[in-house]
Design brief:
12% strand; alpha+beta; 361 residues; globular; 11 helices
């Protein structure tokens, strides 16, 4: 599962609840994107706020600064003309035309759902895209339609192969969601790179095994971190390669070690990120109701499994995120200081009529 990090302001305290209210943040994010011509600004804002509410701050509203940078530099196009260039019915290939990654992914998700409804399965490859946020956001949208969602994406290299030192793979996430309760959203690295950046910002040591230093030993100080470690050693190495096969190799695009990192690519050209969206209709298999019943039984059994510590019950994938959502819905988003500062600038300029254009990042 993605890392759940607890946000702090730069002064070490929490920001006033009013400016952290999800609806207020959603309004500011929507205006900032709309002012740059993003046609689906509200949908993208919903996605970012939802991701932060679930506690996945590394891929939520914190990404707004990077997305604004991509839009302002022409890396992401606010008004792309995506086109289907290959269509077999259940399998579709889409050229995103350099869209904001979240926009391209929302479009791919919609097509996958439509094709699954018609054919029992919808498989959509999207090329020519950019960073799309949290893979689970799209898998959950597919699951909300009564389907099983599988989502993955290529990413710029951050992860060393097992036994290696240099970064060859992206964090290459895998997300699977079905029903209202189950959503597995995990990187194929021990942690995402955003967690390393957060530890650098706060001065906290890394957990052993998260990352490697330049000699290949485990890095403890964030500044010593080079490549991330693969999840579970050779198993994460293999899973990361499998994601590359499903995305860059099959869908088309640069391999992870050929891709520019977010914020470092040339102006005016997308990063060539490739996504894959799969929607499966249970009606085409054992039946929708039977699948729902079995899924409910599986989740309930996992949750009631005997735990080593009675105070820490066994959880199903998605349970920790729901706890974060309940807390932050009531108490406000737990945003970091830099993100709050950006939102304050954007809100002030929006109020003044500037809609957040010339933002200092």
């Amino acid at each position: 599962m993605n890392e759940i990090d607890h946000a702090r302001t730069d002064e070490g305290g929490m920001a006033p609840e009013g400016e952290r209210a999800p609806e207020r943040v959603r309004t500011v994010v929507t205006a900032a994107l709309a002012s740059r011509g993003v046609r689906d600004a509200k949908e993208v804002a919903d996605l970012l706020v939802e991701t932060s509410l679930l506690g996945i701050h590394t891929h939520g509203v914190r990404m707004l600064s990077a997305y604004i940078d991509e839009l302002d530099r022409g890396v992401a196009r606010p008004d792309p003309s995506p086109r289907i260039f290959k269509d077999t019915g259940p399998v579709v290939q889409v050229d995103a035309d350099g869209a904001l990654g979240a926009s391209a992914a929302l479009n791919g998700t919609r097509i996958a759902v439509e094709r699954a409804r018609a054919h029992g399965v919808g498989v959509v490859g999207v090329r020519g895209s950019n960073h799309f946020g949290a893979a689970g956001a799209y898998a959950r949208r597919i699951a909300a339609e009564g389907l099983l969602g599988f989502v993955t994406t290529s990413a710029a290299s951050r992860v060393a192969p097992f036994g290696g030192i240099e970064a060859l793979f992206g964090t290459n996430p895998v997300a699977i969601a079905f029903g209202p309760d189950f959503c597995l959203d995990m990187a194929t690295s021990q942690v995402c790179f955003g967690e390393i950046k957060e530890r650098r910002r706060t001065g906290q040591d890394l957990e052993p095994g998260w990352a490697l230093d330049p000699t290949g030993d485990t890095a403890i100080r964030p500044d010593d971190a080079g490549a991330l470690s693969p999840l579970g050693g050779y198993k994460g190495h293999g899973l990361a390669m499998a994601v590359s096969v499903l995305t860059a190799v099959l869908v088309g695009g640069p391999l992870d070690f050929q891709m520019a990192h977010i914020g470092t690519s040339d102006d005016g050209a997308d990063r060539g990120v490739a996504h894959l969206f799969i929607a499966l209709d249970p009606s085409a298999f054992g039946g929708r109701e039977a699948a729902r019943e079995r899924m409910s039984t599986l989740v309930d059994r996992v949750r009631t499994a005997e735990s080593r510590d009675p105070a820490s019950p066994v959880l199903a994938p998605g349970d920790p995120q729901r706890e974060h959502e309940a807390r932050q819905s009531a108490g406000g988003l737990e945003l970091d200081g830099a993100t709050l500062d950006l939102l304050r600038v954007l809100e002030a300029e929006m109020t003044a009529g500037g809609q957040g254009r010339e933002v200092t990042r």
